[in-house]
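Repro:
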Amino acid sequence: MHKPLEGIKVLEWGIFHAGPGGTAILGDMGAEVIKIEQPESGDPLRVVANYKNIDFNYGNNRNIFFDGANRGKKSITIDLSRDEGLDIAYTLVKKSDVFLTNLREPTVNAKKMDYATLSAINPRLIYAGVSCFGTRGPDANLGGFDYQGQARAGLMHCMGEPNEKPGVVQFGIADQTTAIMGSYQIIIALLMRERFGKGQKVETSLLGTVSYMMYFNHVVELITGREVSKHEQATADPQRNYYKCKDGKWIIHTANSRQEENWQAVCKVLEITDLLDDPRYDSAEKRLAKSEVLVKRYNQAFLKRPRHEWVQLFSERDLVISPVNTVREAVQDPQLLENGYIVDYEDPEMGKIRIPGFPIQFSGAELNKNFRGPSLGEHTEEVLKSIGRYSESEIAEFRKKKII
């Protein structure tokens, strides 16, 4: 069975996750991804140490974040500050379908790895750029990370209850979503090349990606001119709300408040049927006007049973409900496991582990499962021989001069 991107060669000159995570996704789909790194130092993500009590380094100098962003890639080391190193990179560009970088434009231009230069070498090249704030505007060349994307697009102010501090999501949600968008733009450009025969430059950014995630929040502000309200549990629609259960766990219930049958069914399950005969709640408009009172009743009712019982009772009646999982609960959720969103992986060093799976199912293709990132320069000789067509003596000379 074929892999969706088998035969596609991707050359990456990137660091951290928002860019390299996108080429990792292409690798999941069968592309050969070659990562250019600086000799001796490499991608800074290799040495990201820890957060509070979580150590990101594990086993044989491996790093969780580097492996996640660079799984299945080939690492080559080239000193691009030297002309001979650039010549090697240009040789690889000639044989590549895609080039991706998330380094800032002044750096890319200074190293002569810009679109104008590389497209002149390979007119069919898809050149993908990933930035923090986009390529135009006063902050075009500023650097930034995941948090800056969450912050500037408004995401942080949409989380949590009113009057609380802004919230931030761990780990790398904006980076990962930008990586997804980066892979998406490349695949679109590859499709266009198949149809129209030309390469092109494509660009995305952390800010643009998170802004697009915020589509409806931005639309509401733009069209109505009103700031989007945070969700306030105590006053929100009782049938679009979250509740604490007897065991201290949480659930979230969603229903169409204007459908009378939903209102009646929920009241029966929660054993608060006295509300059904109360004229103060005999229409959707009245119920929404009395949300604060009804939420209190719902809060009291949900505290009478543990979460798993409520999930079963609601599901039996086809009422929409879901556990509010912790991350630990989520990665053990049978629904994630059955659908391949969490998969088994045989790591060459750690043995059998579980890793996130690809969330798209193909009936006529297979995907790569990988979580191992390459060691620094692990594939330099292999790539220079097989793609660059350099001889062993030429490679030895490059090493002697510390170009690779």
